[in-house]
Amino acid sequence: MEHRPWHFLAAGVTAIVVLAIPAFSLQLGHIGDGADPTSFTDRRAYDLMTDALGPGSNGPLTVVIDQTSVPSSDRQSLQSTAQKNLNAVEGAHAVTPLSATKDGDVLIGTVYSKESPQNADTTDLVNRLVDDTLPASVSGTKAEGYVTGTTAAQVDFRDIVASRLPLIIAVVVALAFLIILAVFRGLLVALKAAVLNVLSITASYGVSVAVFQWGWGGP
After folding, report:
1. CA atoms of 36 and 30, how far apart (whole Å)
2. Is-contact 199 20, C-beta < 8 A?
3. What is the pLDDT along the chain (219 residues), one digit of tens a residue?
4. Spatial separation of the C-alpha atoms in residues 85 and 66, rounded to whole Å
5. How far is 44 from 39, CA to CA, in rounded Å?
């Protein structure tokens, strides 16, 4: 190794790069009851609901429209428009009728996805409701539309993590660079450590994707 350091360095970097390649297919998600062993009661209940009502029944999306600032004369039109748009939304298995609260200020309904709460299509449905369907339903009014529930909250959290992940990695690498630079007082050493940190982090995510997302090494 001492006689051919660059050969071993190249081999090591190549191995890390190969391990890092799957990281570019990383899909963030959350673990639901469907991932539990079939001996668990929550998993059995999950399967029963899936068989009887569809996979989306395990992650209902609650749609809330605040029409407090909407005149009473316009509320019926708003409700009809919103219901029509919800019924036509892509990816929905079923949509319940919008119902008004006792004071009439809020409309509430439920949308069920065609897929399980952890499926990427359900995430697309949540984003479609938030970005397109509800804004189109309340356009031209003073109403505001929201999507809530456990699944919607998990999608929001996942989106936040995805948007902040590059920043988190950058902060970790930068701090390591500064610490090594201060301790060893060598720019090249600190720079090499920063590059290796990036490669090792990416390789770790790559191995996680290959094992848990692609199923490599599984039965």
Report:
1. 13
2. yes
3. 556 777 787 888 888 889 989 988 887 777 778 878 889 999 999 999 999 999 999 999 999 999 999 999 999 999 999 999 999 999 999 999 999 999 999 999 999 999 999 888 999 999 999 999 999 999 999 999 999 999 999 999 888 888 888 898 889 889 989 999 998 888 888 998 888 888 888 899 899 999 888 888 765
4. 16
5. 7
Q: What does the DSSP 8-state code read for residue 211?
A: I
Per the listing, tokens 């490599």 go with 216
CA–CA dist 25, 27 (Å, integer): 6
Exposure letters 3-31 (e unless 16+ CB within 10 A, then b): eeeeeeeeeeeeebeebbebbeeeeebee
Contacts of 86 by beta carbon, 8 Å cutoff, 6+ apart: 63, 92, 95, 98, 109, 111, 129, 133, 137
Q: Provide the 10 A C-beta neighbour count for residue 105.
A: 15
Token duo for residue 113:
């996805």
* Encoded tokens for 112: 């069920």
User: Does 3.30.70.100 match the CATH number of domain 60-148?
Assistant: yes
Collapsed DSSP state (helix, strand, coil) of residue 67:
coil
Q: What does the block give as tokens for 119?
A: 């499926």
**CATH 3.30.70.100 domain locations along the chain:** 60-148
